[in-house]
Amino acid sequence: MCELLAISCRQPARLSLSLAALAARSTPGHSARDGWGVAYFQGNEVLAYRDAAPAADSPLVRQLAEEGPPTTLALSHIRHATRGARSLANTQPFVRELHGRSHVFAHNGDLPGLPPATSPASTLFRPQGDTDSESAFCALLTQLEPLWRHGAPSLQERLEVVHAFAAMLRPLGPANFLYTDGELLFAHGHRRLQADGRLAPPGLHWLQRRCAPENEALHASGLRVGGGYQQVVLLASVPLSDETWQPLAEGEVLAVAGGEVLARRGP
User: Which domains does the chain show, CATH number per domain?
Assistant: First the structure.
């Protein structure tokens, strides 16, 4: 299956963990050969890199691991295609503009039950590629759009929409996803193909750290940070270090900002 990775932190940090290392922990028998992408927030702007080639073969992946921009919010995805051609248009994370703000989405799973009617009728948000993941993102943006017409909605308003959207997706197939509007990061955990072949939870894990920048635990998690007290939330499809990662419950949604979990909603 695909692999998801996100970081939210108080102080800017460099996500030095290689995407190739993330791919190495993917489900046995599933190679991450179908593309990769990463989106770094720089204030309200998004610096996005995507490539339909394998992450393991990409010099850019290695360069970003060493020299990627420091950021307080980043989201990345490694693709194992289940629907749609191997192409740049089908490579995640997807980025869309909504009321002057960049929104970013990445999905892990397969939504064979996603009917064509779920794709939004609005011309504002139509898929550029042919993946179920992008259609789901367009549907989410269509639901969020009314909230943003008069400025940034509250955390609770956004959480309600994301939570309801996640509940709509779960009956259609595995629906782990990461979504951010640049201020708040939302994570939804569902089911994932496990090492023993079962399709079961957990589909996402999270890790929180609060420490001085020189703390080795942060570096073990794949971070290089600047000065000042740091707090970090990492989210990933599978644990990426020997630390105590917490699994998201099936159907659980987290809302994260500044390296802090602000809200949690069960199914």
Answer: 3-265 (3.60.20.10)
